[in-house]
Amino acid sequence: MLYPQRFNQFTKEHADTLAALLCGLLLFLGWFALHFGALGWALLLLPAAYVIGGYESAREGLTTLIKEKELDVDLLMIVAAVGAASLGLWRREYHLIIDGAILILIFAISGALEGYAMRRTERSIRSLMSLTPDTATVLHQGKEEVVPISQLKVGDEIVVKPGELIPTDGIIVSGYSTLNEAAITGESLPVEKTVGAEVFAGTLNGYGALKLQVHKPAESSLIQRVIRLVEQAQTEEPPSQQFIERFERGYARVIVIAGVLLATLPPFIWGWDWETTIYRALTFLVVASPCALMAAIMPTLLSGIANGARQGILFKNGAQLEKIGKVRAIAFDKTGTLTTGQVQVSQVISSSEYSQGDVLKAAAALESCSEHPIGKAIVQAANDLNWVRGVEVQAIPGQGIIGILNNQNLVVGKATFIQQYVAQLPEALYSLAKAWEHEGKTVVWVARESGEDYEVMGAIAIADMVRTEAVATITRLRKLGVEEIVMITGDNQRTAACVAQAVGINCVYAELLPEDKLDVIRSLQKQYKIVAMVGDGINDAPALAQASVGIAMGGAGSDVALETADIVLMADRLEKIATAIKLGRRSQSIVKQNIAIALGFIILLLIGNFLGNINLPIGVIGHEGSTVLVTLSGLRLLK
């Protein structure tokens, strides 16, 4: 039973792609049979291509006609294709059947692309839903009981063990730990949480066991709000899309009405015979078909997508390649976007009796026994030094760590913790440490036993480092004419301001939750219309979905950010944003040129048809020739 279920799921999700492939194959085989004189086979294969490739367009066109009383391009293409085939059979000009099949194939491919976009949206929502566990451990009458998240009630007490994901929003009633909230708030360092603090579903618990009390329904948790925001933003149609749909229906209505008038009025007005009238009407349907207009856009955008892929820029659809060239404002996330997202040792200072290496080695001796990210950063910085592991190491939650090194007591931690052992911190070191903290860095002090007292060895600054290419990227974007560049982050105001100043961004929005970021994007869109958002975390997903163009970091980005974004920078190279904008602008230029060529051909062919100077084969040649010409023009973007 498993195989049929999987097969049914596959065919359901990929039916549009299969239809386009089969239509193309049958079209080729029909052309081959016709070329070699196998008329019977051709008349069998080509109608099959019509049915398989045109079924979905015919169904949608008829549904729109019946339910909404509107004509659209889907129905127009079917009418034009069937008209060309009928005329081909009537006049035994069978190549016209192939022309109609080409029209069908173009729309089948368009349907396949639309189906892919819908599946991508569904995958992004599924990725968000997978961020929280399906069950939670509830304390019931002193016993632990595992229950589904959906059964949690306000007031329930749940247990979260070290290393587990928080299953739902809650308040800590017992325990102490550090939580990695980067996915929700963008905070680069784990946040210390104790009794009374709120924790969010989808965040990762550190080393301490926690007992939480559920204070809101599971469906009202922050991560569930993120899911709803992404769903809403991805289903809202932008004004440009609405305009295109209205234009398509209006165009189809005009062409169909004109075709009907051309098929009925000329015998009464100009005295044409009915064969000439029908012939001219069907020629009109063929030459007025917007194939060249369609080819003016898609080959160009697909070529631009291929060009971007070679440069590490993944465009998920052609519309975003077009939009990125029109961007007037860009919002950057901080952690993992403008910064590396990994805490590192940025600076070390020592007292006069010790070297910087001594300070690092002493800190690494104790921190090597810790699982805290700060400890890991210190150990990594000391990798090239000769240090030994301390003994009798003991962590003091939220304060620091103590141990013995070379038979001497050693203390590593916050200034307030060190001051329990040292009477006074050296003034010069303390002033510099305060300056580091003002820059948003975390300062770790190191002190060791000296006789009956302790003495300060030095201090270490820990920070999430700014990407080396960030400054050049911001400068280049301004030169390209981007009017507004802002930073939006869940990190604290002080750290955000320091990073923004370092990269050259003047406008900063800090301490934002996901919905706050979404509001900032909407506000920018009111002023600048086309707005790009660059991010990497789960907390960026709603803003990425709402932005006109969402750009995710491919290496550092979360799965949800990658699924939600329209463009992915595969190697986390920020400078490629400027490259993408230039590529988008060039694609716009080529598209405009192609549209002018396509419209020019259509107008000339229509005039020729009305004057009676062209027959149907010449109309088809002109129609297909213009399609080929604009297609080749679009391929210039491959360079």
TrEMBL record:
Q: What coarse category fits the chief subcellular location reported for this protein?
A: membrane
Which residue ranges run through the membrane?
A: 19-52, 96-117, 251-272, 278-302, 595-612
Keywords, A to Z?
A: ATP-binding, Cell membrane, Magnesium, Membrane, Metal-binding, Nucleotide-binding, Translocase, Transmembrane, Transmembrane helix
Query: Record's PROSITE patterns?
Result: ATPASE_E1_E2
The stretch of residues making up the signal peptide is none
Task: Report how it sits in the membrane.
Answer: Multi-pass membrane protein
The answer to whether keyword Nucleotide-binding applies is: yes
Q: Which family does it belong to?
A: Belongs to the cation transport ATPase (P-type) (TC 3.A.3) family. Type IB subfamily.
Q: Is Cell division among the key words of this record? A: no
Q: Where is the P-type ATPase A domain?
A: 130-231
One Gene Ontology CC term in the entry: plasma membrane
Enumerate the subcellular locations listed in this protein's record, separating them with semicolons. Cell membrane
Q: What is this protein called?
A: Heavy metal translocating P-type ATPase
GO molecular-function terms, A-Z: ATP binding; ATP hydrolysis activity; ATPase-coupled monoatomic cation transmembrane transporter activity; metal ion binding
